[in-house]
Amino acid sequence: MKKLFKLFQPLLIVLGLATSQLVNAALEIEITGGSAQQIPIAIVPFGQAGSSAQEKIADIIAADLRRSGLFRVLETAGVASRPTDLAQVKYPEWSVLQAQAITVGNVTTLPGNRLKVTFGLADVLKQSQLVTMEYNIAPNQLRLTAHKIADVIYQKLTGEGPIFASRIAYINKAKGRYSLQIADADGVNPQTVVASSEPIISPAWSPDGTKIAYVSFEKKKPIIFVQSLTTGQRLTLASFKGNNSAPSWSPDGSKLAIVLSHSANSQLYTINADGTGLKQVTKSSAIDTEPSWSPDGKWIYFTSDRGGNPQIYKVSVLGGAAQRVTFQGDHNLSPHFSPDGKFLAVVRKDGGKYSIATQDLASGQTQVLSQGGQDESPSFAPNGRVILYATRAGGRGALAAVSADGRVKQRLSESDGDIREPAWGPLLN
Amino acid sequence: MADKPAAVEDKSPTTTSAPAAPASDATADTAPATESMVTGNPLTDPNNILSKRSVYFDFDKDTVKEEFRPLIEAHAKYLAEHANAKVILQGNADERGTREYNLSLGQRRAVAVKQSLNLLSAQDKQIETVSFGEEKATANCKDEACHQTSRRVDIVYEGE
User: Which residue in chain B has the smallest CA separation from A258?
Assistant: First the structure.
């Protein structure tokens, strides 16, 4: 199974500094593979005649569900009726299509430039309602509402947590400029947070999704900044002598683990989110870098070459002796936690190839999930079911995603850019 | 592709020491002051080993190879003789591996060159180490010779 969707949307809002620039992006999403048992679902076009809404909600929901690889979205053009409410659904029409579930909905305009979105989900075989929802929204929240509806359907029918109403951050290198961008999880609506003629790397979302920490070389050396996505205001988090890099937020958002070199090798530190209270965590003669704060707040997992080759170790946030975590693969780098803290996604080198792998922290069992080459920068979706990472295609950087079971793969590429360093953000409220 | 000419020019682990052998080495040893007055700035004189600024490394290694000894000795001597001179050592890595690890690897290479300079009496306050990681690396390398050009420390004098 191989499908290609072209999604494009002009930039709506520019956040950030004076250096921000307009971007007309066209992110392409390619999906390969899929679950062996996909849920057949009919998504009836929403009634939108009574509203000013331009975008087709049903299309956005259908694209989300398709991308998950867990659904087969049925062609509904041959069905005569167009129900917008579950009471109007004639179930035999949909059981003929072999639909297991059906979604209907309606959008109307409310006074004060608001929209009312209603939607219902039903089990076609049992002819019974599963859920109905109603949203009172501003017109610019239509896409987000569509993603939230897709999440409700996905949760009801798969039992997994929500994933679609979230955003991703990544670096786009185009025409000699580096831009830190954020986009909806479906790649639509990219916005530039900050741009520079010098490299930007390592974006990291604050746990509440309101800020992004990143490393910028704009002063000809790596410095860590924290930027608010609501006000665009930014703080220089760490600008010590030598390199300042690899920010990772504590789960409560009050601190970050960072890497400083001063005049010697990279070592781990913690620092308050306002730039005060610097504390050294590791003291070794090796490279210690790429910290990832555990979801329980107690540990920092990191990459170190103290054993001769880069491998993952863990150390208490209070410091002390480190313990080695990874033992399979020539090298293991760039640890990132699943939201429940049970799995670690890493970059694993076997032979000359770098691929994305996971390790079950309880059993130590590992699984290589990507084909390998120059895959790097893994991060988990908010529900832990998908891992987003950077890969290369046609000599340029592209983003890819793989389901945690390795079955469904996606690739997102920018038509005229070179994209890298992705980070999947938390769910949007 | 745009980096091709630079790659050829920079790819000189073997040629760095070769041109420096006869004339400039001897004159630099005997009369550094007059030599620099005659030929202008020794740091930029293509016949002077001080114009050679790159130290190359093996994959995932920070060992300063023997072939770069003359280059490092020349810069250490210059720094020792010019107490006001300052250098920034810019570490780099090839594009393979993660960006953050490569940032640390470039830093360790810069530190290795700094320690070599320190041993030859260049002072700490004259030397700053930074890393660009793989950010300045040649992209889409097809072979080892190409990767080799990115695994280096560049010696940059203040004001250059």
Answer: B100
Check residue A412 and give its pLDDT: 82
Contact: A245, B100; criterion CB under 8 Å:
yes
Instruction: List, for residues A116-125, the tens digit of each pLDDT value.
Output: 999 999 999 9
Residue B36 distance to chain A (closest CA, Å): 30
Average pLDDT value for chain A? 91
Out of B97, B100, B105, the one facing A354 most closely (by C-beta) is: B97
Least confident of A279-283, A409-413, B29-33: B29-33
Residues 374-413 of A with CB under 8 A from B: 374, 376-377, 395
Question: Nearest Cβ partner of B107 from A201, A202, A266?
Answer: A266
Binned at pLDDT 50, 70 and 90, residue A377 comes out as: very high
Q: Given an 8 Å threshold on Cβ–Cβ distance, is A246 in contact with B100?
A: yes
- The tally of domains found in chain A comes to 2
Q: Is residue A263 part of a domain?
A: yes
B108 contacts A287? CB cut-off 8 A: yes
Verdict on whether the full-model pTM lies above 0.90 = no
Q: Three-state secondary structure along chain A?
A: CEEEEEEEEECCCCCCCCCCCCCEEEEEEEEEECCCCCEEEEECCCECCCCCCCCCHHHHHHHHHHHCCCEEECCCCCCCCCCCCHHHCCHHHHHCCCCCEEEEEEEEEECCCEEEEEEEEEECCCCEEEEEEEEEECHHHHHHHHHHHHHHHHHHHHCCCCCCCEEEEEEEEECCEEEEEEEECCCCCCEEEEEECCCEEEEEECCCCCEEEEEECCCCCCEEEEEECCCCCEEEEECCCCCEEEEEECCCCCEEEEEECCCCCCEEEEEECCCCCCEECCCCCCCEEEEEECCCCCEEEEEECCCCCCEEEEEECCCCCCEECCCCCCEEEEEEECCCCCEEEEEEEECCEEEEEEEECCCCCEEECCCCEECEEEEECCCCCEEEEEEEECCEEEEEEEECCCCEEEEEEECCCEEEEEEEEEECC
- Could you report the per-residue pLDDT of A18-75, keeping only the tens digit for each? 333 333 344 666 767 766 789 999 999 999 987 777 789 999 999 999 999 999 999 9
Nearest chain A residue to B99 by CA distance is A201
CATH number of B52-160: 3.30.1330.60
**What pLDDT does A170 receive?**
96
- CATH number of the domain enclosing A152: 3.40.50.10070
One domain for residues A307 and A347: yes
pLDDT of the residue at A52: 75
**Domain with A245 in it:** 168-427
